[in-house]
Structure formats: structure tokens, C-alpha cells
Amino acid sequence: MRAVIQRVNEASVRIGDSEHARIGAGMLVLLGVEAGDTEGDLEWLCGKIIRMRIFPDMDGVMNLDSVQVHAELLLVSQFTLHASTAKGNRPSYMRAARPEEAVPLYLRAKQRLSEFLGRPVKSGEFGADMQVVLVNDGPVTIIIDSRQRE
Could you tell me the domains of the chain? Predict the structure, then answer.
């Protein structure tokens, strides 16, 4: 699993002509599920996301996590995070999990993030054509991958 975490002042997802979800200060998490990802990948990644100390303390140092600052979280599925650009100019998405494998893990990630956070996580809709709007705070953008675990 791969995630792009963006600290935001606000973020929203539109599907068609209507707003699907909106958050205030917190994190926008773009989540890609790779073929063969496991519950272990999911647990590691969700724990890492919630414990990521990217929010400023009283001295302005990024020292606080999402639970400590009562951050909101918006989760958006994004299979393109597993694009391979090794050949030519058209990305290949062969490493991205098929929907029958990805949807249950995406929904489980939403559930686990909500449990860790202590309140519901808002989300986009898996497979939908979405418009994501955000005000990146910092900017702070972190990329993590459960297979690399760096």
C-alpha cells in the first residue's frame, strides 16, 4: 500500500455536481492498494499515518500527531500511485490491485483509520471520477509505502 499524506487547512471531494466530503484542518490521504497487499501492510500503514508527527507544537516544531491535534482526515483511493513509468510515456497500472482486491482493503483502511483517530474518517468513493480540492498547509506532503517501510 502506498499513501501520499498532505497536511491541509481544508480539503474536499466532489463527485459529479455535488460535494461528497469535506474536512477542515487535518490530513488528506491519497491511498493506493497494490496487488498482493495484506492486512499486515494495512495495519502498518494506517498506524504510521495516524502517528505521523507533522503538526506543529507550541514552538512551531512538527512534533504532534493527528490524534493530539484533533485533526480531521479525508481518505481518497488513488490507483495511479502504483503507476510504472519504466517504458515509454504512458504509465502502466499493472501493479495496482484489481477492484475485487482493492475495495475491501480500502474500506478496511477507512475503518482502521477511524478507530485509531477516534472518530469517523471522511472519504471519496472508490472508482469514482472525483475532483479533489485542498489547501496544503506548509506545504507538508509525505509519501509512505508499506513495502519499503522507511
Answer: 2-145 (3.50.80.10)
